[in-house]
Design goal:
5 helices; about 140 residues; single chain
């Protein structure tokens, strides 16, 4: 899995550069730069608006006494979308827009939830808690 991620991280900037050169050769360098700036500004504004909507839904769920799991995942995806939209490049902008709009974000959420269920069924999961010492369960303290 790590070599695949490393390959992706190396190839993405190369692909972004290739697309930028191709687009720049067709519409001009200044127009390409302006398009990147506009996509970053508009994308950031939409991400801010969507983030605010998710925060309100999260507060509503907490007020009802429910766990806002879906809203937290929405928030993470919106934050990721904002980062992708700020990074210069058209490929990252496309992925950012996919994560930004509610109807496409719900498809990504379904895919993530399906993957988590699949990993859980296989017994594979990521434990993000602090590492435990070997004898934590054996320690007994009498008071």
């Amino acid at each position: 899995m790590m070599p695949l991620i490393l390959l992706f991280l190396i190839s993405l900037p190369v692909l972004e550069l290739y697309v930028l050169i191709k687009v720049g050769s067709h519409i001009g360098a200044l127009n390409t730069i302006m398009l990147l700036v506009v996509s970053a500004v508009v994308g950031s504004a939409i991400a801010r608006f969507e983030g605010y909507r998710v925060m309100i839904r999260m507060q509503e769920e907490l007020a009802k006494g429910n766990s806002p799991n879906s809203e937290v995942l929405d928030g993470v995806l919106i934050l990721t979308a904002g980062i992708l939209l700020i990074v210069p490049g058209f490929i990252t902008d496309i992925f950012g827009l996919i994560l930004l709009f509610p109807w496409t974000r719900s498809l990504v959420k379904m895919l993530i939830k399906w993957q988590i269920k699949r990993y859980t069924a296989q017994g594979r999961f990521v434990d993000l808690s602090y590492p435990r010492r070997q004898n934590d369960d054996d320690e007994v303290i009498d008071v």
